[in-house]
């Protein structure tokens, strides 16, 4: 698993210096090639398909790569720095979830945001999403819970036919105190019967987010956690893989 994320698509991964932000994901996660040069994404997807389906054949690997290409293109366009997914066998039942992360360089109007202002912005969207303020080890953040109905292609359903399913999503927005930046983590899963499992796993991941001490001014220490804020969950991701999170620009932070 390649955990180096170059700052731009032409950079040599070996040239990446210590990133400002890192987090850990369980080793069971497969990493999608959102950091590869565009001309190498297809090849990287073929290699990923071989890792996921080692007993498959060239036709299956090609079909998987072709299905994932537009998804990867959308993620790269949105400025996603990391995307990973797990495939679990839960008592003979397949289950999956996807986690993405991005460091937003430019929030609206270039203003420095707080958890309170982010929560107010999200609450004003007028959809059915639930917005909560949570406390991570890296600071005060905002979590937004939503559910959408989407159509899964036949290749990933147990029936072998396209199916409409409910997809649960969590987005966590963590404003960074020094700059007008924000870390954005998102979880999505079509396996709502496993929602508790994945939501716990997701908050385990975001609780491992670390900000480089060189980027955190001494005069701005982390504030104490207020008693009225809910904790986001435990922070241990056993034997996890460290992933650097590089800055990307996202046009619409709250879309």
List the helices and strands and how they pair.
Blueprint: E1 21-25, E2 30-31, H1 41-52, H2 58-78, E3 82-90, E4 93-104, H3 115-123, E5 130-136, E6 139-152, E7 163-175, E8 182-189, H4 195-206, E9 210-211, E10 241-245, E11 247-248
Parallel strand pairs: 4-11
Antiparallel strand pairs: 1-9, 1-10, 2-3, 3-4, 4-8, 5-6, 6-7, 7-8
Short description:
The chain is of the alpha+beta class and 255 residues long. The chain has helices spanning 41-52, 58-78, 115-123, 195-206; strands spanning 21-25, 30-31, 82-90, 93-104, 130-136, 139-152, 163-175, 182-189, 210-211, 241-245, 247-248. The longest helix is centred in the N-terminal third of the chain and has 21 residues, at 58-78.
Tally of helical runs: 4
Mean pLDDT: 74
Low-confidence stretches: 1-18, 214-236, 247-255
Number of strands: 11
Strand content: 25-35%
Rg to the nearest angstrom? 18 Å
- Gross geometry: globular
Q: How far apart are the first and last residues' alpha carbons, in Å? A: 30 Å
Considering DSSP H and I runs of 4 or more, what fraction of the residues is helical? 10-25%
Give the H and E element order: EEHHEEHEEEEHEEE
Largest sheet descriptor: 8 strands, mixed
**SSE class:** alpha+beta
